[in-house]
Specification:
Blueprint: H1 17-32, H2 41-48, H3 52-55, H4 57-72, H5 82-101, H6 106-119, H7 122-133, H8 139-168, H9 170-191, H10 203-216, H11 218-246, H12 254-269, H13 271-281, H14 283-300, H15 309-339, H16 346-398
Protein name: MFS transporter
InterPro entries: MFS, MFS_dom, MFS_trans_sf
Keywords: Membrane, Transmembrane, Transmembrane helix
């Protein structure tokens, strides 16, 4: 019988293109589970007998679950075989998606949403797995490829969700997603090697070390707060877009809301360019460019009420391209900064940054839901613009570019 290869063997053997593609697809498909619900909010509320405000908290619970999973589960990748962790999360994620599809009430859907977020953190196990499997000279390219898959998964999830919900109903989307994740788990079981643990630290000690990194490194705190604020703005937009388009004067279904993900895909495709810019110009400067572009894009939406519906939609599409591009530029720059702080603690540093990102997204969904209910779309754009502007101010005050430690 042929032995299952261990991850150690990849140190002397290039990773196959097939495995790299599988990891990129796996990262995108797992993180896509966080966003399927967003374009469906407008039709989901009346279908399940819930208020717009109640369904607006579905993205919030999903993002909170994801943040909790990164904080409390991601460190386990250093302690146990990462392949087993990925496979267990795939099974749980598939079951949670299926539970959402059969949910009889908003309460059941909210509970399932939190578990979806918790188990979708398999994406944050896949990215370091790819970095570990890659040869040192190819590590940056490998991680960039997997991150492109992850970002495309985030954006295209809305397109797919909108189309499926438009033609087959919102429950069908969860059934399709559950089947896709289960198939993904079977493929990873066959194709992913085992990973030897890199530490024997007890679980409590692993968690304590994350807090110590936060206290020790002001650069980490700045990057996390800045990206968290940009993520708040990002989530404020996407968690309320479908509800806004469903009402007057647009009266559009989930398919149109999901189609805006195509515009946002420009940002994901620009991720490699952002990495090269950070290498040449310094990640701190490039992060300021990203925050500035995001702020301008959201501020431009303030004039939408002054335009006819067609003009407002064109402006909305252009602004979506702008802020998605800006946020992805900032994210790649902040990752470059964080990975340069301590090469021996990259997984935990990444966990801190990603917790900031998804806490920001959770807050963005909650604040935008309240802003939409009380002040309409103008309130949402104010929340998003204010958060992006604060991120820009933090980056501008940071001053000189971050000097990275040698590789």
């Amino acid at each position: 019988m042929t032995a299952i290869p261990s991850a150690h063997e990849s140190d002397t053997r290039p990773m196959s293109g097939t495995l790299l593609l599988l990891l990129a697809v796996a990262a995108g498909l797992s993180v896509a589970s966080l966003y399927y619900v967003q374009p469906m909010l407008g039709v989901l509320a009346p279908a399940i007998g819930a208020s717009d405000r109640s369904v607006g908290f579905l993205p919030t619970l999903t993002q909170l679950g994801y943040a909790a999973g990164i904080l409390f589960l991601a460190p386990l990748g250093d302690r146990y075989d990462r392949k087993k962790i990925i496979l267990v999360k795939a099974v749980i994620l598939s079951l949670a998606l299926l539970s959402s599809g059969v949910a009889p009430s908003i309460a059941a859907l909210l509970a399932a949403s939190f578990i979806i977020g918790l188990s979708a953190t398999m994406a944050q196990d896949i990215v370091p797995a790819a970095a570990h499997l890659a040869q040192p000279a190819q590590r940056g390219k490998t991680v960039g490829t997997v991150m492109t898959g992850l970002l495309l998964g985030i954006l295209m999830s809305r397109v797919i969700s909108g189309i499926v919900a438009e033609h087959f109903g919102w429950r069908a989307m969860f059934y399709v997603a559950a089947a896709a994740v289960l198939l993904l788990g079977l493929t990873l079981w066959r194709g992913l090697p085992a990973f030897a643990p890199t530490t024997r630290l007890p679980y409590a000690a692993l968690l304590r070390s994350v807090g110590e990194l936060w206290r020790k490194h002001p650069t980490l705190r700045l990057a996390t707060l800045s990206q968290g604020l940009l993520s708040l703005a990002f989530s404020a937009f996407w968690s309320t877009l479908a509800i806004m388009l469903h009402g007057e004067p647009f009266n559009m279904g989930p398919g149109v809301a999901g189609a805006f993900g195509i515009a946002g895909a420009v940002g994901a495709l620009a991720a490699p360019l952002a990495g090269r810019m950070a290498d040449r110009r310094g990640p701190a400067m490039v992060s300021r460019v990203g925050a500035g572009l995001t702020t301008l894009s959201f501020a431009a939406m303030a004039v939408m009420p002054m335009l006819p519906p067609t003009g407002a939609l064109w402006l909305l599409g252009a602004s979506t391209v702008g802020f998605d591009l800006g946020i992805q530029i900032a994210l790649i720059s902040h990752q470059t900064i964080v990975y340069g702080i301590d090469h021996a603690a990259r997984s935990r540093l990444n966990a801190v940054l990603m917790v900031g990102v998804f806490v920001g997204m959770a807050l963005g969904g909650a604040l935008a839901s309240m802003a939409l209910a009380n002040f309409g779309w103008t309130g949402v754009t104010f929340v998003a613009t204010a958060a992006a502007l604060l991120a820009l101010v933090l980056r501008l005050r940071a001053g000189a570019a971050v000097r990275l430690s040698p590789a």
